[in-house]
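Fold it.
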Amino acid sequence: MKILYVVPNINNEGGVARVLAIKTNYLIEKWDYQIDILTQNNGNSPLFYDYNKKTGFYDMLLKGNPFQFLKTYRKSILENIKNLKPDIIVVCDNGFKVFLIPFILKTKIPIILEIHSSLNVEKQENNKSFISKIKANSIAKFKKFSAKKFNKFVVETNESIQEWNIQNGVAIPNPLWFSSNKVADLKANKVIAVGRHVYEKGFDRLLKIWQKVVINHPNWHLDIYGKSNDNLDLQKLATTLIINNNVTFFDPVKDINLKYQEASIYLLTSRFEGFGMVLIEAMESGLPCIAYDCPCGPRAIITNNENGFLIENGNESDYINAVEFLISDKEKRFEMGKKAKISSLKYNIDTIMPLWDTLFKNIITKANS
C-alpha cells in the first residue's frame, strides 16, 4: 500500500516528527508499506529522528502572500499525487491551510486528517483583545466544519472526538517508541519535564509552582528538556523567581528515555494537549506523573491517585500539594511508579500500529466498493 504523508516539517525535535518516524518505520518494516513524506520549505533536511531508508522525501517551497502561498500549496500536492500515485493521503498538520483542503483539493484519493493538538490551541494568552477572541472562535468553528469533510479524522483520545464533535472521527493513541525492562529507581531528588518552550505547554506555570515547592524542598531539582523560544524566555523567568539553582534547562535529546530514568517524578503543566506523549514515555520509565487536567490528553492517560495525580487545570495550590506529597512519601511514589509502568503497556507499538493498518485497509475497501 502507498501512503503519502503531507506535513509542515519533520526536521525538528517535536513529538509529531518523532511519532511520524515511529509509525512510518513500522509500516515499512512490518507490512512493506511504501511511504512518501511531503514537507514544506526545506522541512526534511537535516532530519533529527531516524527514518527508514526506503522512505521517500519530497519538499514544496511555499512563499508569497496568503493567496500565492495557498495556490502553491495546492499545486505542489497535486503534482506529488500525480507523480507518486498514493492509495491514501494522510495530512498531519494543525495549520489553517489544511482545513481548506476539502475545498481546494479535488481528488478521488481518500484523505485522512491526523491532528495532534487540541481544538483549543487557537486560544492563547488571556490578555488577547475581544476581536482576537472572536477571530479565534470563528477559526475553531470553521475547523470543526472542515474536519467533517475528510474521509477520516484521526485524533488521539475519545475526548478529542467529543471536543471536535464529528462523526468521521477515529481515536488512535500514539505508540511508545521504546520499551525497556529498566525503570527509574525513584530515589533521585529530581523531577523532569519535557516539551517545546511555547505558551500551550505551560512551563511558565511550572516554574511558579517549582518556586514554591523548593521552599520546603531546597535539595530537589527540576530538569526541563526542550527547544527554547526567545518569545518565551523561561530562563529569565527562572532568574526572576530566584530558582536558578533548582532548575536546569537542556536542549532536546534523542535518548530522552535515559533522562526519564534519572528522575523520580514527571510534571506536566500544559494548558492544552492533543495527547501527552511525554506522559506515556515517563510512565514506561516507571515515573509517577502529575498533570493539569487540561484538554485533551492527560485524563485519558492518568488515573488519579493510582499512576499519578490529575489536578484541576490551573489549581496551583493542589498541584504544589501533589508534588510535595510525592517528594515526601517514598512508598506512595514507588507504588505509583509501578502502576505507571503497567499503564504504559497498552501503548505498546505492536498494539497501536495494527489499528492504523486496519484503518488504511478499511478505507481502501470502502473506496473500491
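The longest helix spans residues 349-368.
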